[in-house]
Design brief:
Distance between the termini of chain B: 51 Å
Number of domains of chain B: 2
Largest interface: A-B, 16 and 23 residues
Largest sheet of chain B: 6 strands, mixed
Number of strands of chain A: 0
Strand content of chain A: under 5%
Structural class of chain B: alpha+beta
Strand content of chain B: 25-35%
Number of helices of chain B: 8
Shape of chain B: elongated
CATH superfamily of the largest domain in chain B: P-loop containing nucleotide triphosphate hydrolases
Order of helices and strands of chain B: EEEHEEEHHHEHEHEEHHEEEEEEEEEEE
CATH topology of the largest domain in chain B: Rossmann fold
Radius of gyration of chain A: 25 Å
Helix content of chain A: over 70%
CATH architecture of the largest domain in chain B: 3-Layer(aba) Sandwich
Number of helices of chain A: 14
CATH superfamily of the largest domain in chain A: MetI-like
Radius of gyration of chain B: 25 Å
Number of strands of chain B: 21
CATH architecture of the largest domain in chain A: Orthogonal Bundle
CATH class of the largest domain in chain B: Alpha Beta
CATH class of the largest domain in chain A: Mainly Alpha
Helix content of chain B: 10-25%
Order of helices and strands of chain A: HHHHHHHHHHHHHH
Oligomer: heterodimer
Chain lengths: 289, 362
């Protein structure tokens, strides 16, 4: 019966409806809506006055956009300080972490070492420990080095917790690069570092871009560790600055959301720039390319 | 040009030996093909010459200089890999100049060498392309170009034609051979394809299970294989083998069915021995009625020749007929073994017994 209907439709020149595809599209739209809704809420609220926030629906567009929320939030959240701190920490941590991870992953994947597997297991062990568990020991350690309220004091723990999973991803990627490629480089007279820099890094750009985005967003938005390790307000990062909007007696939702918009904007811009690599990076290694 | 001397080379992976003491002398400018079935150790041996695998025992010398502990780059060799191993993000020109660049050769010389190699291989229009934009044959040529620009003492080829389609393989085969004739560089070439070995090599080394079975020119191997393995490996369609016992008085070979097949004269002292009689398909010819009786089982015309599978006293043999013949399965057929073309191998050791002057009497 179905077959004959489909045949008839095909004969009429119309492709038969694929109900699986249609339901997939519907579920995709629903999921996208769920993800986009909070963002719409934040952007709309950032442009409303406190009175408007209380009287209008959360998803109602602002009737009288309050751009002053952004200037007020910039001052109140001490953005001129926190942005600088966030930029310095992220700009140092993300590229440095990726570079170290890539070198470690190359060494583990391509240089025969006596205890290579053991070292890999130890590094992978690092991905299994939630950093929240380690907050108190880290504080003690960083304090012991006298690095509380310094950039290295927060960058070093970030590196320690970021590198293991990056090594894990890159190790898998490098293992999949045909060994003839490194052997050809070896015969051509390349040292390990040259092979890494001239052959492996360019080949790994998609996966490096994907890791760059993930790490950038994670570092930019990191709150808990920064809260513990950065106690001087002059050293606060953007997410810590947001806490200024959650006072005991006052809540200005317009300003809070304006601050959130300004905080997440760089992450969104970085994502949009690298997103085409991101998708290909996530699937890289899935099929032999 | 250089000589390569492999002396009693062994390779073990842990406790498992994969190369059992191999000796090969490769002369200046020679084209030597290492051939053998999968897992025979031919690629391992090539990788040991290249310096990509450690040598467990023995020595490898290039131009009388032992290179066992030299890095690949210091051995003055160049290698072409089966999957080309081109650097995907570099252009053809960059791929070819990479080694020279690392050796800090000045830019003008690099340009000149790359252009010269590109001219030899017809790669000039492709110099600015990336490997992904090239066909399989073009990639193979770039891989060879990368080897040529270095002007090495020895070229190593590791099954370079395996990834190409049949037609291109034949074309590239001729190209590599003519390249060797022009450059005169010593070449060690690994393949599992005995046709490639036969058509290209000055000398062939047949390897099996980590041992050298025979070293010789293609026709030596074809005409006088030293054992049953080489006899069966070299030649397509493969040599026919019939197992049986040699009878006294030159009567012939008594096969499993009890019948005695006359195979021509053989030394009288072989009577009573268990042997395998080998005869190449082209040495089985159609006789006009007074030959050996056989029944046609399968007829496979290829155009230039016809392969006929026949049943002779319960033994399956392939005959290769070069002229047009009109037979069909089930037909009776009379055949002869061509004079002086039979081979006898010991049934136990597989070693060659003698080159019989078979069928002289027939």
């Amino acid at each position: 019966m179905t077959a004959s209907v489909e045949t008839a439709a095909a004969q009429a020149g119309k492709p038969p409806r694929d109900w699986v595809l249609i339901s997939l599209w519907i579920s995709l739209v629903v999921v996208a809506a769920v993800w986009i809704a909070p963002f719409v809420f934040i952007v709309f609220t950032s442009l409303k006055s406190t009175a408007q926030v209380m009287t209008s629906s959360a998803f109602a567009p602002p009737t009288d956009p309050q751009f002053s929320n952004f200037t007020a939030a910039w001052a109140r959240g001490r953005f001129s300080t926190t942005v600088v701190n966030s930029v310095i920490i992220t700009a140092v941590k993300v590229p440095l972490g990726l570079f170290l991870s890539a070198m470690a992953a190359y060494a583990l994947a391509k240089i025969p070492m006596r205890f290579g597997k053991l070292i890999l297991v130890l590094i992978l062990f690092g991905t299994m420990i939630p950093f929240q568990v380690m907050l108190a020991p880290i504080f003690t350690l960083v304090n012991g080095f006298g690095l509380i309220d310094t950039y290295p004091g927060v960058i070093l723990p970030y590196l320690a917790f970021g590198i293991p999973y990056q090594v894990f991803i890159l190790y898998g990627f490098f293992r999949n690069i045909p060994h003839e490629l490194s052997e050809a480089a070896r015969i051509d007279g390349a040292s390990h570092f040259t092979t890494f820099r001239r052959v492996f890094l360019p080949v790994s750009l998609p996966v490096l871009a994907a890791l760059f985005i993930l790490d950038f967003v994670a570092t930019w938005n990191e709150f808990a560790m920064a809260l513990v390790l950065l106690q001087d307000r002059e050293m606060w990062t953007l997410p810590l600055g947001l806490s200024a909007f959650q006072g005991q007696f006052s809540r200005d939702y317009g300003q809070l959301n304006a601050a959130i918009v300004m905080t997440v904007l760089p992450a969104i811009i970085v994502y949009l720039i690298f997103q085409r690599y991101f998708v290909s990076g996530l699937t890289s290694g899935a099929v032999k390319g | 040009m250089a000589s390569v001397t492999i002396s009693n080379v062994r390779k073990n992976y842990g406790a498992v030996p994969v190369i059992h003491g191999v000796d090969i002398d490769i002369h200046h400018g020679e084209f030597v093909v290492l051939v053998g079935p999968s897992g025979c150790g031919k690629s391992t041996l090539l990788r040991m010459i290249a310096g990509l695998e450690n040598i467990s025992d023995g020595t490898i010398a290039i131009d009388d200089k032992v290179v066992n502990h030299l890095e690949p780059k210091d051995r003055d060799i160049a290698m072409v890999f089966q999957n080309y191993a081109l650097y995907p993000q570099m252009t053809v020109a960059q791929n070819m100049s990479f080694a020279l660049e690392l050796a800090k050769v000045d830019k003008a010389t690099i340009r000149q060498k790359v252009d010269a190699a590109a001219a030899i291989l017809g790669l000039e229009p492709l110099l600015d392309r990336k490997p992904a934009q090239l066909s399989g044959g073009q990639r193979q040529r770039v891989a060879m170009g990368r080897a040529i620009v270095r002007n090495p003492k020895v070229f190593l080829f590791d099954e370079p034609l395996s990834n190409l389609d049949a037609k291109l393989r034949v074309a590239m085969r001729a190209e590599i051979k003519s390249l060797h004739q022009r450059l005169g560089t010593t070449i060690v070439y690994v393949t599992h394809d005995q046709i490639e070995a036969m058509t290209m090599a000055d000398r062939i080394v047949v390897l099996n299970a980590g041992r050298v079975e025979q070293i010789g020119t293609p026709l030596e191997l074809y005409d006088r294989p030293v054992n049953r393995f080489v006899a069966g490996f070299i030649g397509s369609p493969a040599m026919n083998f019939v197992a049986g016992t040699l009878q006294a008085g030159q009567a012939g070979l008594k096969v499993a069915s009890g019948a005695v097949i006359p195979i021509g004269p053989y030394p009288a002292e072989f009577a009573g021995r268990q042997v395998e009689f080998g005869i190449r398909p082209e040495h089985i010819q159609v006789a006009d009625g007074n030959g050996l009786e056989a029944r046609v089982e399968v007829v496979e015309p290829t155009g230039s020749e016809t392969h006929v599978v026949i049943d002779m006293a319960g033994e399956k043999l392939v005959a290769l007929i070069r002229h047009r013949i009109s037979i069909t399965a089930g037909d009776a057929m009379s055949v002869v073994f061509e004079e002086g073309q039979g081979h006898l191998f010991d049934a136990d050791s597989g070693q060659r017994l003698t080159h019989t002057s078979a069928t002289a009497a027939m």
